[in-house]
Design a protein that fits this description.
Layout lengths: L8 H15 L12 H10 L13 H21 L1
Length: about 80
C-alpha cells in the first residue's frame, strides 16, 4: 500500500471508492468511462447543418395526438 502522499489522482480516487464501498457494505462497483467531453469535442469539430421542416398533422394524426394528450392528462390527474 502506498502512503497517501505518494498517490496519484486515480489511485486516490480508487482508494476513496474502496473505503466508501466498505462503509456502505457494497461488494461490486460499476465504473463507466467519462466520454462526454470526447463526444462534445467531436461534435464541435463540424457543426451540423440543421434544416427544420414543418409537416402539418393529418386528421388521423390529430385524433391520435388528442387521444394521447387526454390519456396523459387523465393519468396525471389520477396521480395527484
Amino acid at each position: 500500500m502506498h502512503s497517501p502522499t505518494n498517490l496519484n489522482t486515480s489511485q486516490a480516487a480508487c482508494l476513496h471508492l474502496k473505503s466508501m464501498m466498505k462503509e456502505l457494505h457494497l461488494c461490486k462497483d460499476h465504473i463507466y468511462p467519462r466520454f462526454h467531453e470526447d463526444v462534445k469535442e467531436s461534435l464541435e469539430r463540424r457543426k451540423a447543418d440543421i434544416i427544420e421542416l414543418y409537416q402539418p398533422m393529418s386528421e388521423s394524426m390529430s385524433d391520435i395526438h388528442q387521444a394521447i394528450v387526454q390519456c396523459m392528462s387523465t393519468t396525471l390527474a389520477e396521480l395527484k
